[in-house]
């Protein structure tokens, strides 16, 4: 019984260590070379893309050994973390730069001074800067509050998330509740990215 409890503690700690995605810059790759992106976390994986030697703001959404999963084109692949330097200031929880979803299509852009929600066929909704609320006792989720033309409350969490439209993978899932004057609340669900594009 004690072994089972210890194993559970070790495994749950490892699962929590995955945490939120982080931003990296390519480092240690010669100017005339590239960092290969592969279909598996191994040097024997098929090359499916490449990163320039000066590439920055690369979002790593999952780690496996010394490999990081990142988006490449319309899919995702793996690059060696030996040649990627994690950007300083990676806090927990990070503030996503952009969140988005489908059915209906929407995009939430978060900025230090202002934020906005764009929904297909609707007027842009402006907000102030986001207020981030770390979850009590959890390192893998946080709350997000926006005030402006109505209110927007959200919970976002670390974990592999798909937009359902491509083979790209993201490291943050989000559920938000939008309340506008004269309208009932709307719940939207999607993914977020730390990268600006």
UniProtKB/TrEMBL annotation:
Q: Does the keyword S-adenosyl-L-methionine apply?
A: no
Could you tell me which InterPro entries the record lists for this protein? SH3-like_bac-type (IPR003646)
User: SH3b domain location, by residue?
Assistant: 33-81
Task: Say which domain of life the source belongs to.
Answer: Bacteria
Q: Per UniProt, which keywords does this protein have?
A: Signal
Q: Which residues form a coiled coil?
A: none
Signal sequence annotation: 1-17
Q: Is Ribosomal protein tagged as a keyword?
A: no
Name of the protein: SH3 domain-containing protein
To which species is this protein native? Answer: Thetidibacter halocola
Which lineage ranks, top first, belong to the organism behind this chain? Answer: Bacteria, Pseudomonadati, Pseudomonadota, Alphaproteobacteria, Rhodobacterales
